[in-house]
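Late entry, written up from scratch paper. The run itself happened at the end of the previous shift, but nothing got recorded in the book at the time, so transcribing now.
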Amino acid sequence: MGIGMSSSKSAYKEAIMSQIINDLSELDVTILQLLAANEKEPVKGQVAYQKEMFLIANYCDRIMEETDFEAHNFGSHSEILENSINMLEQNKLVKTDGQKIFLTDFGEQALLKSHSKIIVENEAIEDFKELLNDLTDDEICLIVYALKPEYAAESIVKGDIFKKRVKNSISLYSKGKVSLSKAAYLAGMNIEDFLKKTRDVC
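Output as recorded:
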């Protein structure tokens, strides 16, 4: 009796897990890919999550269509992404610890079984995550605001971000995240003046 009940519970649990995996959308799978990228390095917080997914969405039209990004308090924001990560956490595919977002073992298992729903190559996702995931929120926002300024229209931190644009551009350049010309552009300066400012700071 005890063995039979245990077997029945195990089968029920496996059926639920299988259903969760089957119900994953292409967007859900892309989020799991992001969390699995670069040896499952956690995404550092909600700003990084939204902005890393925004870069992915700009790379893949189907993800952009699904996410429906809008101008928001901190720039580009998708309520759909917010709901998706909450659902994934409820289903124990991801977990949060403080601000950080992690892929769970179940999430990794689900990703392995969802190859048919992968629409963005892992290499591209890894590049976007590597670009942003170790930056400050201000540095992340500066990059994204410069990429798509129309999404910064409603930002409540835009003024502060641009006040610190030179300092953050120098930081991005010193970290090897952007080229010299891109750093100068982010700083709102020509290359010669930017190099002079960089030497002054150093």
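The longest helix spans residues 2-22.
(Scratch paper discarded after transcription.)
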